[in-house]
Amino acid sequence: MKKRIVLLAVLVVVGALLAVYGSTLLGFYRLQRHIDETAQADDADGGPWPRTTDVCMGCHGVKGNSLHDAYPSLAGQPAQYVAAQLHAFAAGQRANQTMGPLATTMSEAEIARVAGYYAKQAPLANRYFKPEARLRAKGEQLVTGGACVACHGARLTGQAQFPRLAGQGYDYLRAQLDAFANGTRSEATGTMQRVAQAMSADDRAAVATYLASLSPVTQ
Fold it and tell me: Where does heme c 2 bind (predicted)?
């Protein structure tokens, strides 16, 4: 009899607690489940902690979509290109005060993992950039009249060892064209040096404007 009374009392207490706190407990359960599922999806996307890509986020943005015009977006960049640039930074073939020291600390496995990670990220449009109409029109003529698509792809979204240009920040694009023109940046074929050196400063500004205004979304 006493056991029944105790059991009944326990059931009453549990029922009362559920009546009062049931929705809260259910909310906590759902929150924990959401956190677990999000963490699992994040691990599947970027790999387990610690991640080399977390260091990149400060300049290149979340999942490689930079919000700063001076820093390139890595999202959607071909893995072969990203890996090649990291090797170039590490070897001193491409100069950058931040990327040089960082790249020298990376193993081949880390380089491959970082390159593969950014290659599969979806790039976002450069929607905050407002192009000057004259420069954009001139840039479009120069780009479509040139052979840019032969290396950088039909939509200028990059392929193999050639980078995505569409939707990159204006400041970054202009800086790279200027660097190719003045010889402070080079690439193995010499194509970009010749192309940039043949352009005037206004031409380079126009090309950068047009490229920055393009959508990098391929579908």
Answer: 148, 151-152, 192
